[in-house]
Design a protein that fits this description.
two-stranded antiparallel sheet; 6-stranded mixed β-sheet; globular; 298 residues; Thymidylate Synthase, Chain A; alpha+beta
């Protein structure tokens, strides 16, 4: 049987060889394909944590837990040693103040000064705000995650089990509009929870691996809370792109052979979807190739 990671590698090769090349919002330039898909079977405990380069899976899970908390300020992430959201507020700070501060110094100021963090560490109404406190036209807030958990438990045959982050009214005040936009769920007659995640825009070299892990970790939590078992994870990409400064890294990754996927499991059942911690996730058998570094396009 062909290793499931080849789905990702085939997509990477396709974008590399056939992608439409153009200058993008960041000015870096991309090669992109539109409308892509990969799918992974989670039913045996296997997790799609890519092996052709090291993926820092704990960082991806911590980010997902931050989304679930409703957080929108990077201070909480930095306290958890997660630095993947620093680029956007740092760029904003440099642009508005003219100060050429280093990323490390900026992050230390966020950590050490609550007032500074409140002003410069805030990302606006990004993922967590939309997932947990979507503001309706009538002024009411909607907790999409709590509603989803309730529906999974009470009406698992529903075709309306989804949540999304593309709140048109608040896009302009977000540091970055949501890339992974819609998560839809489906429960089979034998109690398996499937997830389809639609991502409007994906940095295929840096972002996709994190997005897979984050979505799967959420799928495990939701399945456990609803007394279901994980089924299939389906990922759908809109603008699926490779930045031009990642071309060499992509070729290096494509030259590597996949190794067996690890397993991921929850070590306890939390009392609610809000009570999970990074310590609740256990990954076994992860033996990846070395990490491959690439710059984030902001």
């Amino acid at each position: 049987m062909r290793h499931p990671e080849h789905q990702y590698l085939d997509l990477l090769a396709n974008v590399l060889e056939r992608g439409d090349e153009r200058i993008d919002r960041t000015g870096v330039g991309t090669r992109s394909l539109f409308g892509t898909m990969v799918r992974f079977d989670l039913s045996e405990g296997i997790a799609p944590i890519l092996t052709t380069k090291r993926v820092y899976w704990k960082t991806a899970v911590k980010e997902m837990l931050w989304f679930l908390s409703g957080g929108t300020n990077i201070q909480a992430l930095l306290r958890d040693n997660v630095r993947i959201w620093s680029d956007w507020p740092l760029a904003s700070y440099r642009k508005e103040t003219g100060e050429e501060i280093s990323q490390d110094e900026f992050e230390q100021r966020i950590l050490g000064d609550d007032d500074f963090a409140a002003r410069w560490g805030e990302l606006g109404p990004v993922y967590g705000k939309q997932w947990r406190r979507w503001l309706g036209a009538d002024g009411r807030e909607h907790d999409q995650i709590a509603d989803l958990v309730h529906m999974l438990r009470e009406n698992p045959s529903s075709r309306r089990m989804l949540f999304h982050g593309w709140n048109v009214a608040e896009l302009e005040t977000m540091a970055l509009p949501p890339c992974h936009m819609v998560y839809q769920y489906h429960v089979t007659s034998d109690g398996k929870l499937n997830c389809m995640m639609m991502q409007r825009s994906v940095d295929l070299f840096l972002g996709a691996a994190f997005n897979y892990v984050g979505a799967v970790s959420l799928q495990l939590m939701l399945a456990q809370q609803a007394d279901l078992t994980p089924g299939e994870f389906v990922w759908v990409g809109g603008d699926t792109h490779l930045y031009l400064n990642h071309i060499d890294q992509a070729r290096e990754q494509l030259a590597r052979e996949p190794r067996p996927f690890p397993t991921m499991r929850l070590t306890r059942k939390a009392e609610s979807i809000d009570a999970y911690r990074i310590e609740d996730f256990e990954v076994e058998g992860y033996d990846p190739h070395a990490a491959i570094k690439g710059d984030v396009a902001v």
